Amino acid sequence: MQYTNSQILAAVLNRWLQPVVLQLSQAKMSSFPALQMIENKVRQMGIVSPNWSLTQELAPMIEPITNSIVQPMLGKYLSSVPDESIPAMAHGIVDKALESGELKLMEGKLTFNKEDLTELKNLLNYNLPVGQTTDYVVKTSDTKKAEAQAAESPAPNTK
Fold first, then answer.
1. Global confidence as pTM
2. CB 25 within 8 A of CB 62
């Protein structure tokens, strides 16, 4: 079966975001008083250890949920982007985030560090490689100055 770039990127993002979805769902579930009551009751019965958590018990179910809900939502959103632009766009966003060292979303409430971004970059390299781009680079006065300085300076000795 031939997959579109939007389907591939949706699958990559879904896979990469699963730990975040797990964390967010655990935080949300543990805030429900009814679930806290159930956890406490089960612990008091002595059936489980004092460290047992219902949200941890449900963690293995996150992957099928994200595969059936999150991935199609991402795919639908990404399908509005021209398919041939998706690899360069995805790599470009991750490269910019890697340059700054992190990616902050939702006013900084969700932060991806360099390690997270490197993992995403690797997934993109494996699943959605980007070929040589022939995009035009817009010149600015700074660009001309940098090119002139590079032309004046001797080439580094590579021996």
1. 0.70
2. yes
